[in-house]
Design a protein that fits this description.
308 residues; alpha/beta; four-stranded parallel sheet; two-stranded antiparallel sheet
Length: 308
């Protein structure tokens, strides 16, 4: 699949988003925040000459009605096929994200027997087995404080594992060699408008496509910006590039407090229960639904890609 011309952009970094007190965060080699007004970094991404075919746009609030679990399109199959030609590992996926991704709450349990129960979703075990090892991997493209700009910034890469000039997502793709990337970047870009978020997210998506890695783009559970503009932008990007969208926001809406913690009461952190999907009380919390629907999205994409 051909992608649009990308340009070198200067990126301001913002302060870290915080994790819940009980979350398990991965250790970092670099500070999780950089003073916004003091540093800019050059983002280096691959380029191609042609722009993608324009896609239909969404109507106002139409993203709210989009399915939780995506369907795989021919475009995603083309990306996957290209990735296989490049030698991408079909049994690897990578997590790309911020503090809500860089936590022991997110997907990690699926690599540990006895840490979860699927209940009526037992068919998902095939996908757990297929991607064994990727669920608990410490991705080099996730860290507290990451946002859409930091993912593209070499300064934010792990200096011990990444090559000079390599940004976090390029480093992760090189070392883990995934065929799929689940991209969930919830931290807003220093209260900037959704257009700024979208500008950097498009670069992440275009780089993934160029590298033959199928992006699964996730909506966020919160509405800290107040007008749902970030989720609308995320969904618009998924439609624009014809890539899978995991609509986490829609999955959380029926839950008490829309799946968010009443103890922290910040409208950002999800309510916690363990991933025992056969226990009705657990399924009143946000985290089991985030993990279940992420697994369902991964399962749907895996099966859809294998259909080719």
């Amino acid at each position: 699949m051909k992608v649009r011309q990308l340009f070198l952009l200067s990126v301001m970094l913002l302060a870290a988003c915080t994790t819940a007190p009980t979350a398990t965060s991965q250790p970092e080699s670099l500070p999780s925040s950089t003073p916004e007004a003091t540093e800019t970094e050059t983002v280096v991404v691959a380029t191609e000459e042609s722009a993608p075919t324009p896609r239909p746009t969404l109507g106002p609030d139409e993203w709210m009605t989009l399915p939780i679990v995506p369907e795989v399109t021919d475009t995603a199959r083309e990306i996957y096929k290209r990735g296989q030609e490049l030698g991408r590992d079909p049994n690897h996926f990578s997590k790309v994200g911020d503090c809500q991704t860089n936590t022991g709450f997110y997907l990690v349990d699926f690599d540990n027997d006895g840490a979860y129960s699927l209940g009526e979703y037992a068919s998902l075990q095939d996908t757990i087995d297929y991607y064994q090892g990727s669920f608990s991997r410490t991705s080099l493209a996730m860290r507290d404080g990451y946002n859409v700009a930091a993912i593209l910034t070499p300064l934010r890469a792990d200096p011990k594992l990444c090559e000079k000039g390599e940004n976090p997502i390029a480093c992760e793709f090189r070392l883990h060699n995934p065929s799929i990337a689940i991209i969930s970047l919830e931290t807003n870009f220093s209260d900037r408008p959704a257009d700024d978020y979208g500008k950097y997210m498009r670069q992440i998506i275009e780089y993934s496509i160029e590298q033959g890695v199928v992006p699964i783009l996730a909506t966020k559970g919160d509405n800290l910006e107040g007008d749902h503009s970030i989720n609308a932008e995320i969904a618009e990007i998924a439609v624009e590039y014809d890539i899978p969208l995991w609509n986490l926001w829609a999955a959380l809406q029926p839950l008490p407090n829309q799946g968010h913690s009443t103890e922290l009461n910040d409208g950002f952190h999800l309510s916690f229960s363990r991933n025992f999907f056969d226990k009705p009380k657990n399924m009143l919390s946000g985290w089991p639904w985030r993990n279940l629907t992420a697994l369902q999205a991964l399962d749907a994409v895996r099966r859809g890609l294998q259909e080719q």
